[in-house]
Amino acid sequence: MKKFGLIGYPVKGSLSPVLFRAGYGGKYPYDLIENADFEAAYRKFLDEYEGVNITAPYKEDAFRKADIIDPVCQRIGATNLTVKTPEGIHAYNSDYTGIRRSLIETALGCIPEDETDINAGIADFFGHRPDALVVGCGGAGKAAAVAAADLGMHVTLMNRTVGKVEQIASDLPQYGFGIRPLADFTEMFLKCDVLIYTLPESIQGIQALESGELPPQKDTGKKIILEANYKTPAFSPEVMSRLQKTCPGIRYVSGLRWLLHQAAGGYELFTGETPDFQAMEKAITQRF
What we know:
The chain is of the alpha/beta class. It contains 13 helices and twelve strands. It has a six-stranded mixed sheet with strand order 2-1-3-5-6-4, sandwiched between helices. Strands 9-8-7-10-11-12 form a six-stranded parallel sheet, sandwiched between helices. β5 (81-85) and β6 form a beta hairpin.
């Protein structure tokens, strides 16, 4: 029987097994492969599993191991999903898919089957070409930057380590990424239409937002916040309540939505079978 799993450290408490079982009704095994040694975890994948998801801190390590790299994955330089094929190990990045689908769904209310004019639709939602701010430039942050740019957004990057941001911008000159220091977070948050926040904890700039002493924001009042951390989000209900007083049209998208879309797209690459998305949604709802 085909087996699948998740490599990372730590991975205890991950929702991936729950989502996978729900998506396929328990048809396939899905294990957590937790190991502080990436090489040992990767060998276990090669010996026992048909495909694995990869989470921090191994997304770039697994990327370098792949024989075949999906074009989107190549631009990002990190993988969160590898599958065995007759030609070798194929690497994908379903974080990109999860971010893309989450933003489209939030702006348009659904994910159209035909995405030919999707960038125009998103621009129409905001009334102009949107500005996106991506905070945190690890594997998820790089996926977010590329996904937002591919949706026609002008993207500015922020990270605790400026050198990492500069490297990403240098590696992907076709996107024209802007670079700003983390100290400018509040200023850039007020200006942006979309914030994709991938850091695992809050920063001083968010604490300043919580004070509630903010000027009214863009005329449309439309702003989307997509946060990766769904367990202990930096944009807590208290923060969002204050923000909505000055920006009534603000929309918060939990990392759970990102996770759902990322998982659904990725699992189909594993099995060749479309998972039951509604069952996955229900499984998440029962836990949160």
